[in-house]
């Protein structure tokens, strides 16, 4: 495998940024435009995953830039304790209108949104005079963020490992809905859903149903297991368990929301009669133009605050940031004006087709799953038994590297796709503006990378 020319990378020995690794040099991007990222040495890379499913309308859109400039020239920053700003107001109106929610809180990133959602759920029950509700239930192989609360809530084994001493004993976990690995061979979707609902019910009973504050789930699991949708009926069944016991039903759509699945909200694919009690959005909300996330709050939760203390005991300096909200507002307008959600859906159908055509026959491609423009390819050692490669086999990094060398960036997931320890996948989540030709190039490139990397694994074995 040839290494990238060094003039495309940052020189980490002289860099003053503590990058994610002090050993592996990140590439130095000098320009990003449309669906491409340009390097210092002149090469261009097709953005096949929008970072971590962030870039959804492409890079450098002049309309967003104009909006941000206008915002900077009118109101840049005002403190949310004293002031509101038009951008935050308009964005909240748009988002609540689309989702059927009542209010929105704007924060700087997904982890902050999840922290806030945990606290909001807790305070909701205090407002309702139920202080005994202290427990939270999330799922195995979930990701909800990197701050200590969100990381404690989720089960991304590798990211949690160093910090285990700090996680609250009030966070509990049940099985994910992950058909490829955990639905039994002769089990129907309905039976599988019933089994998972029984498990959640049993967890409520174990903890004491009156002690559970909320259940958290990603509508489509993102980074941890790789674009994993639930089987039909799952979320409805989970919600019924929550409703029965008075716990809040919270959906994390930080990675899969804002049109990524071909509907504005991923839960709109699900058989739910009403929106979740709380929903968090991030990543694609700012489309890469601003660091913004939101907590969308249902009427039910707002009413409890209205009847109670009337204020949420939580706040951040950069809450409701005018420039961040304006950027997100422009992104949202473009998504609607250019009918990008419909386009995302259509391109998604095409991507699914070519992924299956090109990759499903490969000896080590175990599963291809996703929705909209949010797809993962999971690799196994043995297709029949679904045996995985040991977590010491770091081939995903090689696949990513081979793709980059051929001009495509996609998103890695390894050491834990299936069970928190083993399992490997890559994610394809390009901007909704991607063309069919560009999608074909991504899949062709990935195919070559897979062939090259597995050949070298075989030679090593
Ligand atoms: C990325 C992500 C988060 C955390 O968001 P950050 O912006 O990285 O803090 C939380 N939940 C899900 C589902 C995510 O994909």
From TrEMBL:
SUPFAM superfamilies assigned to the protein according to its UniProt record, in alphabetical order: PLP-dependent transferases
One of the record's GO cellular component terms: cytosol
GO molecular function, one term: pyridoxal phosphate binding
Keywords in alphabetical order: Pyridoxal phosphate
InterPro entries cross-referenced by the UniProt entry: Aminotrans_3 (IPR005814), PyrdxlP-dep_Trfase (IPR015424), PyrdxlP-dep_Trfase_major (IPR015421), PyrdxlP-dep_Trfase_small (IPR015422)
Superkingdom, natural source: Eukaryota
A Pfam family that the UniProt record links to this protein: Aminotran_3
Entries under CDD domains matching the protein: OAT_like
Family (UniProt): Belongs to the class-III pyridoxal-phosphate-dependent aminotransferase family.
NCBIfam families in the record: PRK07483.1
Name of the protein in its database record: Aminotransferase
UniProt organism field: Adineta steineri
